[in-house]
Amino acid sequence: MAFPGIPTSLTLEIVTPDRALVTEQVDEVELPGSGGYFGVLPGHAPLLASLQVGELWYRKGQEKYYLAVAFGFVEVLPDKVTVLAQIAERAEDIDQRRAEKAKARAEERLTPPHKPDLDFERARVAMMKSLIRLQVASRARTRA
Ligand code: ATP
């Protein structure tokens, strides 16, 4: 049922420093926010959140589309979600072998004995990004 004044879809925009990756009319979005994953349906209350490393999906009808995202900001309005992400990759654009290699490097760095100059936070972020890329890439395969 449509209620006057309540939007029935969302405009989703996903922008990175290099490009506008997504501009679409969608029915639902789920994103990794600072307080955990949260979902947005049309008519959501306005909010501003920071974006963490994680999987973002959006739904158009019955079809879901997955992206790996990392760091940035999300602005939610009742009829629009704007994602300004440092990194955003569609599932089908993820190079799985590259992500496997990044994961192996991060694992090696994080496994004791640690090198004295280990940047633990950097290694932890690299590990998370590689794991999310692998998770999102596997979504592309299961949908095909
Ligand atoms: P790597 O160690 O493999 O370079 P990284 O996590 O250091 O990975 P980022 O700094 O996150 O890489 O990203 C640099 C650029 O490379 C970004 O544009 C990002 O979208 C792209 N990129 C990184 N890894 C992949 C991947 N596995 N598949 C597709 N694009 C990737």
- Distance, first to last CA: 33 Å
Strand fraction band? 35-45%
Fraction in helix? 25-40%
Query: What's the mean pLDDT score?
Result: 95
Distinct ligands, ions and cofactors found in the model: adenosine-5'-triphosphate
Largest sheet: 8 strands, mixed
SSE order, as H and E? EEEEEEEEHH
Please compute the radius of gyration using only Cα atoms. 17 Å
DSSP summary: helix tally: 2
Shape: elongated
Structure report:
- There is one protein chain.
- By secondary structure, this protein is of the alpha+beta class.
- The protein contains two helices and eight strands, in the order ββββββββαα.
- The protein has helices spanning 96-110, 120-143; strands spanning 10-15, 20-26, 28-33, 36-40, 47-51, 54-60, 63-77, 80-90.
- Strands 1, 2, 3, 4, 5, 6, 7 and 8 form an eight-stranded mixed β-sheet that branches.
- Helix 1 (96-110) packs antiparallel against helix 2 (120-143).
- The protein is elongated and about 60 Å long.
- The mean pLDDT is 95.
- Bound molecules: adenosine-5'-triphosphate (ATP).
- Adenosine-5'-triphosphate binds next to strand 8, helix 1 and helix 2.
Task: Write out key terms for the chains shown.
single chain, 144 residues, alpha+beta, eight-stranded mixed β-sheet, 27% helix, 43% strand, binds adenosine-5'-triphosphate
Protein topology:
Blueprint: E1 10-15, E2 20-26, E3 28-33, E4 36-40, E5 47-51, E6 54-60, E7 63-77, E8 80-90, H1 96-110, H2 120-143
Parallel strand pairs: 1-8
Antiparallel strand pairs: 1-2, 3-4, 3-6, 5-7, 6-7, 7-8
Bound molecules: adenosine-5'-triphosphate (ATP).
